Amino acid sequence: MPADAFALPRGFLMGASTAAHQIEGGNTASDWWAFEHASGSLVREPSGDAADGYHRWREDMDLLAGLGFNAYRFSIEWARIEPARGEISHAALAHYRRMIEGTRERGLEPVVTLHHFTSPLWFAKAGGFAAADATDLFVRYVETVAPILDGRVRHVVTINEPNMAALMQAVRRNPGADYTRLDPDEAVAEGLIAAHHAARDALRRLLPGTAIGWTIANQVYQPASPAAEDACRAHAWPREDRFIEAARGDDWIGVQSYSRTKVAEDGPLPVPDGAEKTIMGWEYYPEALGEAVRHTAGIVGPSVPIIVTENGIATADDARRIDYTTGALRGLAAAMRDGVDVRGYLHWSALDNYEWGSYEPTFGLIAVDRRTFARTPKPSARWLGDLARAAEIPA
């Protein structure tokens, strides 16, 4: 092993992530499909066929396994399982069961997300997670899906980035406002936390031995000066830390990190002039990952292991993707060396996909032709796959 490499522990998950709406295409029963096609929508382009992942999942899994990865995180789409209230699609359940079995057949550990931003349109129209019966409806869906997870899936994500889901609701209610200064919608935040805890308890009852958690968008809030430390903590709590605190009783927590946010006494600051930015407009800051896992571990404590469920960069320069990921993995290795219990690293994303309004931001390890859907692994995919095969990361 090279002197600058960190040996990964046995069983460490090394792979990539996707989300159903962003790769499957044709998710017509979801709230996001309706949002994309609403009159006057600010969405630049609709998802359409996305990466046709609903039909090409075997090819995607073959590529990931062939590259050397041992894990794949993907999501089950509630709007396909229950397109109308109380009407269950057994064909959709069978589809996702085949996907789960497909990961196992290829030597990939499935990490399955049950809610990745999108909900059935009927659920959203009834008030979404702010509705009085939201928890009961979500648990009913989770209980419907549980049999296809049983004995096949060891890591389940109930809800992806609840802090961002609550913030998105605030953004929808305040069009044109500076989203960096909006508080997440309180009713939605409370509903998401309640739904997560209830779903976790239901899955523990139905699937004993399965590890249940959720994933948080880590903004790596940093005080712009010593005088801003209190303001930074106050800014972070409703947007991130309260959701991390809600995971203290979970089996694990997912860390999702891309960049950092500087906070002054009067609020968050924009990316500094002259700083390198990604296609998303975020500051190029690979150190964020190591800082995010340390921050999360400090809140949940040593009894809740961490899996990095998303980390990556939107760039058209794949060499820059390798540079960024090298820096991120070095920070992760340092945190693990210092005792942070990290059980996996799942890169965002496996494929170039639909980034919630546009196909321009390319996060993928694998390029996708928008017309033919041909998949082409990038050099970064082979580089990261080689690390996975060697069970080591840069130190």
UniProtKB/TrEMBL annotation:
<dbReference type="InterPro" id="IPR018120">
    <property type="entry name" value="Glyco_hydro_1_AS"/>
</dbReference>
<comment type="similarity">
    <text>Belongs to the glycosyl hydrolase 1 family.</text>
</comment>
<dbReference type="InterPro" id="IPR001360">
    <property type="entry name" value="Glyco_hydro_1"/>
</dbReference>
<keyword id="KW-0378">Hydrolase</keyword>
<dbReference type="GO" id="GO:0016052">
    <property type="term" value="P:carbohydrate catabolic process"/>
</dbReference>
<dbReference type="GO" id="GO:0005829">
    <property type="term" value="C:cytosol"/>
</dbReference>
<dbReference type="InterPro" id="IPR017853">
    <property type="entry name" value="GH"/>
</dbReference>
<protein>
    <recommendedName>
        <fullName>beta-glucosidase</fullName>
        <ecNumber>3.2.1.21</ecNumber>
    </recommendedName>
</protein>
<dbReference type="GO" id="GO:0008422">
    <property type="term" value="F:beta-glucosidase activity"/>
</dbReference>
<keyword id="KW-0326">Glycosidase</keyword>
<dbReference type="InterPro" id="IPR033132">
    <property type="entry name" value="GH_1_N_CS"/>
</dbReference>
<dbReference type="Pfam" id="PF00232">
    <property type="entry name" value="Glyco_hydro_1"/>
</dbReference>
<feature type="active site" description="Nucleophile">
    <location>
        <position position="310"/>
    </location>
</feature>
